[in-house]
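User: What would this chain look like folded?
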Amino acid sequence: MAGKQKYSRVLLKLSGEGLMGDLPYGLDPKTVERIAREISEVHALGVQICLVIGGGNIFRGVSAAASSIERTSADYMGMLATVINALAMQSALESQGVPTRVQSAIPMQAVCEPYIRRRAIRHMEKGRVVIFAAGTGNPYFTTDTAAALRAAEMNCEALLKGTQVDGVYSADPKTDATATRFDSLSYQEVITKNLKVMDTSAIALSQENAVPILVFSIHNSGSFAETIQGKGTFTVVQ
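Assistant: Here's the prediction, encoded as structure tokens.
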């Protein structure tokens, strides 16, 4: 692919819902494969990539049962759901020739590596994509916060959030025709305007470590590569 990338090491945050396609819950193989292809394109540019994937697509399927489950246990269920998504994405990436490692904040050596910061950095330096699973390993923290934490720990130059729309809007553009789109925002504006970019702790963590957040649509073909190169349509929070 032609073009010069603006960032050399990034973290991509994906929601679990982004992997559902048109399904009510679970994984849509075609959607997973398409997103893996987007990541493969950026990997081919020589960019070092790590990922954090949410678990909403799996957890949504058990959420009715989870409503009566104590919060800490429910959070651990959500963390396990992210491991399922991470393994699915690893398989999709490796089928496209992209070497990938999964590291889990909850050790489960039979299926993936435990999270070890230095090992993760070494994997990326060797050209492997690293997928961080099980959030932070602690209840009460979202995968948004896990993404901000890992981006800081990995010394990433940017945190890219792949969403359902092409940036940050004042309201949901799918339900509000008057919603306006922002090209750029400060961390503080996101918090004071209560914009649903990421949760407050993730925004604060990114601000504290000076990691810009780039919000783009993961559903627009080629948008991940374009955003990496500073092109296309996205919102930057910094």
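The two ends are 28 Å apart (CA to CA). If you want, I can go into more detail on any region.
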